[in-house]
Specification:
The complex is a heterodimer of chains A (about 400) and B (about 375). Chain A has two domains: about 130 residues, 3-Layer(aba) Sandwich (Rossmann fold); about 170 residues, 3-Layer(aba) Sandwich (Rossmann fold), CATH 3.40.50. Chain A is about 40% helix and about 20% strand. Chain A contains eleven helices and 17 strands. Chain A has a seven-stranded mixed β-sheet with strand order 12-10-9-8-6-7-17, sandwiched between helices. Chain A has a six-stranded parallel β-sheet with strand order 2-1-3-4-5-11, with helices on both faces. In chain A, strands 13-14 form a two-stranded antiparallel ribbon. The longest helix of chain A has 21 residues. The termini of chain A are far apart. By secondary structure, chain B is mostly helical. Chain B folds into two domains: about 50 residues, no CATH class; about 260 residues, ABC transporter involved in vitamin B12 uptake, BtuC (Orthogonal Bundle). Chain B has 15 helices and two strands. In chain B, strands 1-2 form a two-stranded antiparallel sheet. The chains are: A alpha/beta (about 400), B mainly alpha (about 375). Chains A and B meet through helix 1, strand 2, helix 3 and helix 4 of A and helix 2, helix 3 and helix 4 of B.
């Protein structure tokens, strides 16, 4: 046993000497990406494709770490990207990565760290740690317009009355990002179909194909005429295709799997952000602590409308509303468009600054508009507005 | 009569298998280590085909991942490797006494998760309200108790009602996962994620560049203690007797029920410690994926190490080395390949035990018999 151990150790040492000979020479900027899953998740695929495209376009080296859980493994991955690969810019894509990335950011002040969907950069006191998100509610609103037009078409065709116009929404958790998403979707639909209401079901998971499918089926059984979702699997779109119920998707097109029911999908395009942070590091300029791209900067995009399923004139209407949003004529969370408990809001304190007790700290309504993603990039719209019925708030 | 014999000899299979106990330890170990080396080499060749890297590049990537940091004088990565070894080793050590007793504890995952949850509750909900030293004591005690309860419940049912412990322990894993899910529902921001930045109390300190000093040190001590316990203590001896034959144990006056329950208390407690180390010493957070399937890998490690803590240590070193190396080789392709390869390697090493315990004899047809 001892002899064999000694032999094994000798072999290991010889090989490590051999390994040491192959050290790499220095090259240009290297960007390290940390992903929660890999391309098999629609959420991560959206990041991975944008990251590769941005690195190619900017001529910098792309290094990835996939399937990094939201644990100390994220910190270890960041350390490895910095010390082994020599990355000067690190990006992580999952909400739960934030704390571990901040831990690394404290130890490597010379490296820039960027994190999507996070909430703490502006209060962290770290000048090398940055949050990013996008005004995705603008895209959701446009997708909602398409949904509302589809409902109108079905009402005109006599499939159901205007009062029966009800949509269903499959969400993950009662978390601001989800609430902001379904509320803007609903407001979009309501802007063209004023009688619409919406039921929301939560699955308690970001990715659970079976649960999402069951939730969608339960909503359809409950009388929902159209389904949308904020969860990462194909569960809800597939259930809709099988039931012949129109579906508005998220994070990318589901057209190939659902040719008869897919209407349109909105997603965040991360390429502009990646190009921006690479440029900042190359030029040595500071990266915004909170960065939120808009529909104007192509950070929020819609897929092509599936004309086989969508109502007539949807493409033109979306273009028209988009132009109005860009011009500032339409504010998605205009307080004139929604009520909470029957009343129009004039003031709301949201929990923007991170603290243990999650105390509301910032006035987010100005001049009659709820300003989402303005005071920090991560969403903080968590109002339960009238017309939306939460079927299970346990999550 | 003659034709009957002829038929019989025709029916005889080409080879037959004989149990053997006579293989020398060095021969057995040569087979094991050669199996690991050969199968790893074959997997590297397959990786050449899959990744397009040359063989030396693959070796370089594997070794650089773990040992590359030593040459640079930066040890962080190496400590992270030792930490991953320590956690898997701790879980394997926890399973060892149970498995030696032939109690198939498949619940390390849940027992460790409960230990981790206990630590998290202390850190998040009690931290700051009591002195720090008392918090550490409470964390250790509660983690061990939570792990113990999860381990001893199946043992009590096994001892008194002879229920199937494999199913029981497996089901307890799912209950533990749901309890953690439930705990996370109470977070006020609705994210269902614990933010490690908000945890200010009860974190194990690091030592210099080594963030995981406590984890590594604790498991190192546990390895030695477990070796002594199993080999030299009376209780360790009782465990092996119960494992060999419960009737023999009863005959020589061992209280089998007591041994089963006591051993599972120890097994559960050590799993609880693994959860404590993961949560307080590394993650500073807990979720349903905190143990990440290592409770099941640990079963394999305990078997491969033949219930000897030091051999388990060696096996965990090797398997973790290959795993991390392969992840680094496949990082731009699909890290799932790495998991497949590690599984194949473990399967082959388990398979080679067959040739150590049995010898294969070819049935040579006797020339004179056929006449």
């Amino acid at each position: 046993m001892k002899k064999l151990l000694a032999l094994a150790l000798v072999a290991v040492m010889m090989l490590s000497v051999f390994a040491a000979c192959g050290a790499k020479e220095e090259s240009g900027l290297k960007v390290g990406f940390i992903f929660l899953h890999d391309e098999n998740s629609t959420y991560d695929k959206n990041f991975i494709e944008a990251a590769k495209a941005a690195c190619d376009a900017m001529g910098v080296e792309y290094v990835q770490k996939t399937q990094i859980p939201e644990s100390a493994a994220c910190y270890d991955a960041a350390v490895e990207l910095i010390e082994v690969e020599g990355c000067e810019l690190i990006f992580a894509d999952s909400f739960g990565h934030e704390g571990f990335l901040m831990q690394a950011a404290k130890e490597y002040p010379a490296v820039q760290f960027c994190h999507a969907t996070g909430t703490q950069a502006h209060t962290s006191g770290l000048d090398n740690f940055h949050n990013a998100f996008a005004h995705i509610y603008q895209g959701r609103y446009l997708a909602g317009v398409a949904a509302g037009m589809k409902l109108n078409e079905m009402i005109e065709a006599g499939e159901f009355t205007a009062e029966e116009a009800k949509m269903g929404y499959v969400g993950a958790f009662t978390f601001a990002e989800v609430i902001s998403g379904y509320t803007s979707f609903y407001l979009g639909a309501k802007s063209v179909c004023p009688t619409v209401t919406m039921d929301v079901k939560f699955t308690g998971s970001w990715y659970d194909e079976q649960l999402e499918k069951e939730a969608a089926l339960a909503l359809i059984d409950g009388g929902c005429k159209l389904i949308s979702q904020h969860a990462d699997s194909m569960g809800a779109p597939t259930a809709c295709e099988n039931a012949g119920v129109p579906n508005v998707s998220y994070n990318g097109s589901t057209l190939s799997a659902c040719p008869n029911t897919f209407i349109v999908s909105s997603r965040i395009n991360w390429e502009p952000y990646f190009k921006y942070i690479i440029e900042c590091v190359q030029n040595g300029t500071a990266i915004d602590t909170d960065w939120a791209g808009t529909i104007e900067t192509e950070s929020v995009v819609l897929t092509d409308v599936n004309t086989a399923a969508a109502a007539e004139g949807t493409v033109e209407k979306i273009a028209e509303v988009k132009a109005a949003i860009v011009a500032g004529e339409i504010n998605v969370f205009d307080t004139a468009n929604f009520t909470v408990g029957g009343e129009t809001l004039t003031s709301y304190m949201a929990d923007v600054d991170y603290d243990d007790a999650f105390t509301p700290d910032t006035e987010v309504i100005e001049n009659g508009v709820f300003f989402e993603s303005k005071f920090r990039s991560g969403p903080y719209f968590d109002l339960r507005i009238d017309g939306i019925n939460l079927l299970d708030e346990k999550y | 009569m003659a034709s009957e014999i002829k038929n019989k000899s025709k029916r005889e299979p080409l080879l037959h298998i004989v149990k053997r106990d006579d293989m020398a330890w060095w021969a057995a170990w040569s087979i094991r280590i050669l199996t690991i080396l050969i199968i790893t080499f074959i997997m590297c060749l397959i990786s050449v085909k899959l990744t397009g890297y040359s063989l030396p590049v693959i070796f370089e990537k594997m070794f650089r991942k773990v040992f590359g940091m030593i040459e640079l004088g930066r040890l962080k990565m190496f400590w992270a490797y030792l930490e991953s070894v320590a956690i898997l080793l701790c879980l394997s050590l926890a399973l060892t006494p149970a498995f030696k007793m032939k109690f198939w504890n498949c619940g390390a995952e849940g027992q460790a998760l409960m230990g981790g949850l206990a630590a998290m509750i202390c850190m998040k909900d009690i931290g700051g309200k009591i002195p720090e030293w008392l918090l550490f004591v409470l964390m250790v005690v509660l983690s061990i108790v939570f792990g113990m309860v999860w381990g001893v419940l199946p043992a009590i049912f096994k001892a008194f009602f002879n229920t199937n412990e494999t199913l029981f322990t497996l089901m307890m894993n799912y209950i533990a996962i749901q309890i953690v899910k439930y705990y996370l529902c109470f977070l006020p921001d609705g994210s269902n994620k614990i933010n490690p930045e908000t945890i200010k109390h009860g974190m194990f300190p690091g030592l210099g560049q080594n963030n995981y000093f406590v984890n590594i040190a604790v498991v190192a001590v546990l390895t030695i203690v477990m070796f002594i316990y199993l080999k030299y203590s009376k209780q360790g001896y009782e465990i092996s007797v119960v494992g060999e034959s419960q009737n023999t144990a009863r005959y020589i006056g061992i209280n089998v029920k007591k041994v089963i329950i006591r051993t599972m208390l120890i097994s559960g407690a050590l799993c609880g410690v693994a959860g404590l180390l993961l949560v307080a010493g590394a993650d500073h957070a807990v979720d349903t994926n905190t143990i990440g399937g290592q409770g099941f890998t640990a079963i394999m490690m305990a078997w491969l190490g033949q219930f000897n803590p030091f051999i388990i240590l060696f096996m965990v070193f090797v398997i973790k080395f290959i795993e991390l190396g392969m992840v680094s080789v496949y990082t731009n392709l699909d890290v799932s390949f790495a998991e497949v390869i590690v599984a194949i390697i473990i399967l082959c090493v388990v398979g080679c035990e067959f040739f150590i315990r049995y010898s294969v004899k070819f049935n040579h047809r006797k020339k004179e018999g056929t006449v």
